[in-house]
Amino acid sequence: MPARTLAVVVLAAGQGTRMKSATPKVLHRLAGLPLIQHVLESSAALEPEHLVAVVRHERDLVVTSIVETTPTALIVDQDDVPGTGRAVEQAVEALPADFDGDVVVVSADVPFLDHGTLRGLLEQHREEAAAATLLSAVLPDATGYGRVVRLASGDVERIVEHKDATDAERALREINSGTYAFTVAALRAQLPRVGSANAQNEKYVTDVVGLLTGAGEKVAARAVDETWRLEGINDRVQLAVAARRLNDRIVEHWQREGVSIVDPQTTWIDRDVALSPDVELLPGTQLKGATYVAAGAVVGPDTTLVDTEVGEGAVVKRTDATLAVIGARASVGPFSYLRPGTTLGEGGKIGTFVETKNAEIGAGSKVPHLSYIGDTEVGTDSNIGAGTITANYDGVSKHRTEVGSNVRTGSHNVFVAPVRIGDGAYSGAGTVVRKDVPAGALALSIAPQRNASGWVEANRPGTAAAEAAARAERTTD
Predict the structure, then answer these.
(1) Are residues 280 and 391 in the same domain?
(2) Catalytic choice (28, 50, 125, 369)
(3) Best exposed site among 124, 200, 268, 363 by fewest CB in 10 Å?
(4) Is 28 a catalytic residue?
(5) What is the CATH number of the domain that holds 207?
(6) Alpha-carbon torsion (68, 73, 79, 81), positive or negative
């Protein structure tokens, strides 16, 4: 493209009432990212000199999301004058007075508008030396969209919104996508002339097109064959449709990269997930955030991993994990809950109905079942008995438990933190460990068992238990 300065304006001021949500529409997530982030990335790929975001509804929330990934974005607050025309007008006013390049205008709720489509728009705009170029598409049903009205010569004459269109205009099937390239000179000349005499009493940026053609300026249109790329997200139905479309593309991508996905329809993969060849994903798997799965690992069925790292050859089934690290050839699940800060070493195991939090479990160590291990460090090749609990909270503060290497603890233990169990130590079943256990020692909680003979018949007369006891006594006699 010829070397000209460029600004991109992202329109993100709308309330999105059809979402019926306390969350701003542009912050609803698609493949793990807010809608607006998809648009910001495509826009930034054009390498504009200025990237301007126009905001209004839930302004602070939207701005926070923008600056997380695009800290250099210029934020413009739309005033009380409604409409896209006013939003673009304020964005242009915020540009430096000596800016004399092109302005691409995009909407923050059109997540599939990719860099290639935008670049094609800008290239045609510059090649044809147009004052404005719009992205258009021909749809079988154009209901709700603004229509592109052309002259007999085929040139673009104007755009009319659906609510303002005549029956003849509504019969047109070429629609305006809401994405444009303008020269900044054209916008500066025509935006002040845009009025609000329309069905919605708003300043439409689309009116600039008619004003330009009326002034003898050239307006071009670039038709998009992949019409789904122009679809905006206005309600939750459209959001779900878009999510399925994007997920299908993500799943297909990973399949072609050597990942086995048994049931694509029930497997959901966020856009920032990374997978290695020969990973196997079983039905009902959700991989979210920045999750990474190494070669040969098997994940699923019915597993959700969020920002979690899975090592080579590991097996993770029916598990919920967030911000966890699972080592190579480790085994997790079924029905495990790994909370943030869990690290499981190579060849380790977190088994059935085990919950972990802020726990470092060393290589070869196992927590097989029915346990809670929180704020804990376990060495290598240790085994934590069934039903073990680390009592890490005293009602005020959290404390850590340390378990050494080659430790064997009995079933139904309670480790009352802070406490340390030394290397090679053992503990008996039902032990409550309140003091440090030296290396190689056996920890026991001993209370003599006392049987109160005849207690049931004396205290529960007439019950089934009392009758059973009486029968047993007669049989013994």
Answers:
(1) yes
(2) 369
(3) 200
(4) no
(5) 3.90.550.10
(6) negative
- The answer on 255 and 225 residing in a single domain is no
Domain of 368 in residue numbering reads as: 249-443
Domain assignment present for 244 = no
CATH of the domain at 373: 2.160.10.10
Residue 231 and residue 135 in contact, taking contact as beta carbons nearer than 8 Å: no
If asked whether residues 285 and 220 sit together in one domain, one would say no
Q: How would you label 25-50 residue by residue, b for 16+ Cβ within 10 Å and e otherwise?
A: bbbbebbbbbbbbbbbbbbbebebeb
The Cα–Cα gap between 56 and 77 comes to 6
Separation of alpha carbons 335 and 220, rounded Å: 58
Last residue of a domain, one of 167, 198, 230: 230
On whether the CB atoms of residues 219 and 212 are closer than 8 A, the answer is yes
- Residue 98 forms part of a structural domain: yes
> Would residue 436 count as lying in a domain?
yes
> Per residue of the chain (477 residues), what is the pLDDT tens digit?
445 799 999 999 988 899 999 999 999 999 999 999 999 999 999 999 999 999 999 999 999 999 999 999 999 999 999 999 999 999 999 999 999 999 999 999 999 999 999 999 999 999 999 999 999 999 999 888 889 999 888 889 999 989 899 999 999 999 999 999 999 999 999 999 999 888 888 999 999 999 999 999 999 999 999 999 999 999 999 999 999 999 999 999 999 999 999 999 999 999 999 999 999 999 999 999 999 999 999 999 999 999 999 999 999 999 999 999 999 999 999 999 999 999 999 999 999 999 999 999 999 999 999 999 999 999 999 999 999 999 999 999 999 999 999 999 999 999 999 999 999 999 999 999 999 999 999 999 988 889 999 999 999 999 999 999 999 988 876
Number of domains comprising the chain: 2
